[in-house]
Amino acid sequence: MTLHRQQVFRGAFFAFILTFVSAGSAAASKHVSGSVSVAVIVLIQYLICCIGMIPWLTQCSLDNFKTQRWLEHLIRGITGWACFYTYYAALDHIPLVDATLLRTSSPLYVPIIAWLWTGTRIPAIRWIPILLGLAGIYAILQPSGVTISWWHLVGMVSGITLAGSMVATRVLSSTEDTSLILFYYFAISLLCSLPAGITQWQPIPLSAWSYLIGIGLSIYSAMWLYTKSLTYARASVIAPIGYFAVVNSGFLGWLLWDHTPELKTATGIVLVISAGLLAIYIGAREERKALLASSQ
Questions:
Q1: For residue 57, how far is the Cα from the chain centroid?
Q2: 71-80, 157-166, 172-181, 271-280: which range is least confident on average?
Q3: Spatial separation of the C-alpha atoms in residues 232 and 164, rounded to whole Å
Q4: Burial tier of 123 (Cβ tally within 10 Å: 0-12, 13-18, 19+)
Q5: How far apart are alpha carbons 245 and 242 in whole angstroms?
Q6: DSSP percent split of the chain into helix, strand, coil, nearest 5
Q7: Could you tell me the residue ranges of all domains in the chain?
Q8: 77-125 pLDDT, tens per residue?
Q9: For an engineered disulfide with 275, which of 111, 133, 178, 198 has Cβ 3.0 to 4.6 Å away?
Q10: Sequential DSSP letters for 161-200
Q11: Model confidence over 115-135: pLDDT tens digits?
């Protein structure tokens, strides 16, 4: 096996483990939300993530915290926080697989947000997966076939805000160190979590603490795994593997809560996943063309 293939395999392995960590974290949040408010879950999650940054902080000087991209860090932190807040809120009211799918639909919104933010033109071919994915999301938003589920809309917001976070991270990564991006993300998200977390704070059952600590550690681990996977393999390789989280969530939802998707929901899931994979393929092809053009 060549060195390149070994690196791709390692990247794919880290990404695959990430899908289990993400699904497990979501299931734990859905389970514990019956006794702990979403605001408190998010607050404790980011508090644990900030604590996880302490080893890096002890090795830093004040110069390491300097940045000229305060606005981008602020957008990254707020959208990242909003993504988890709306995702956990949706999990409390809709099946695990539905919420996870709506969150992982973020690649569909990335071109639109990038166009609004940076003015990057959306090629005509990119509208195909966008429209296909939106058709799938529409099917998921109406699981009963009668009225739109508002909590499914909240889950959709988690995908939109995740896309905003992804675009902000892409902009920041051109000039900022990965650890610095994570530090400001965790710190800003923690600050966003404080008002609601403090006002909704209530005594937490002892049995819930193991889940809360597990959620915080899993989110920190997820960030590490995601970064590590991209160290070894391109995003076009890693992104499709993320849809295994939907499969894992579907299995956990069936196993723990006996959630079986309706036909319309299952159709929507197939459409969104197909659209996401198509969007990733188109993006990878455009990236290859750009690289070839720059090398000539």
A1: 25
A2: 271-280
A3: 24
A4: exposed
A5: 6
A6: 80, 0, 20
A7: 3-295
A8: 999 899 999 999 998 888 887 888 788 777 778 778 878 877 777 777 7
A9: 133
A10: HHHHHHHHHHHHTTTS-HHHHHHHHHHHHHHHHHHHHHHT
A11: 887 777 777 777 787 777 777
If one counts every other C-beta atom within 10 angstroms of the C-beta of residue 111, the result is: 22
Residue 233 neighbours by CB under 8 Å, 6+ apart: 7, 8, 10, 11, 12, 15
Token pair 């060549």 in the structure block, residue: 2
Nearest to 186 by CA among 59, 54, 88: 54
Question: Hey, what amino acid is at 105?
Answer: S
CA gap 191, 101 in Å, rounded: 28
Q: Which two tokens mark 244?
A: 């295994």
Question: What number of residues does the chain have?
Answer: 296
Question: Two tokens at 165?
Answer: 């976070």
Tokens of 77: 């932190």
Residue 153, token pair as written in the block? 């809309």
Half-sphere exposure of 209 (CA within 13 A, CB side): 5
Query: In the prediction, which pLDDT does 239 show?
Result: 59
